Amino acid sequence: MQVEISSGPAFAFGEITLPPGGSVSVEAGAMAMTRGDIQMATSTQGGFMKGLKRTLGGESFFVNDFSSGSGGVVGVAAALPGDLDHIMLDGSRALMVQSGSWIASDPSIDVDTKWGGGKTFFSGEGLLLLRCTGAGDLLVSAYGALRPYTLGAGEVLTLDTGHVVAFDEGVTYNVRKAGSWKSTILGAEGLVTDFTGPGRVWLQTRSSSDLILWIQSKLPPQRS
User: Fold this and answer.
1) 3-state DSSP: the chain helix, strand, coil percent, rounded to 5?
2) What is this structure's pTM?
3) Does residue 222 sit within a domain?
4) Pfam families given for it (predicted)?
């Protein structure tokens, strides 16, 4: 499939051109438009248990599969304002994608769920990961702009868990508190993830968890 990304990094829009006989799997609700000869079928992509695992990983239970007999276009957009990135997988290594960032991929890409660990009572954060394997095209989304980093062997990059988008499976990672329990509570920092190269890491410049907390702070208090 051919992918063109426009209107980024604030409001990125992806147009996926399908050749005759082509198809693409899209996260439920991410389709914004279709053009030309496009048919849609909804499935769990792998059966009930696979769909259930995606739900536990923060994705929709169902996936929409778009196909074309004579060629067409599928337009996709993420729920939150931000950027999109088109990543090619060659089958040699998996890509770990943070929950909610997978938008679309070739049907040949297998998307499974993996618990990345690190949830705590104070922060409520952790890593819920999607393990994407196979060869083909993959679209990931970010809240805010996307920043890719390539780490050398032994090089360490530390990210707040809410800013993680994706990383190569060969990159090792460790989820930990940002500091002591005192700084975690008083300093408003929860968990961070240390990534150690070699490999690629993608971060987003905004955190949806921070957005939710900000909205909650502006809501009037509930009365019993």
Assistant:
1) 15, 50, 40
2) 0.81
3) no
4) AIM24
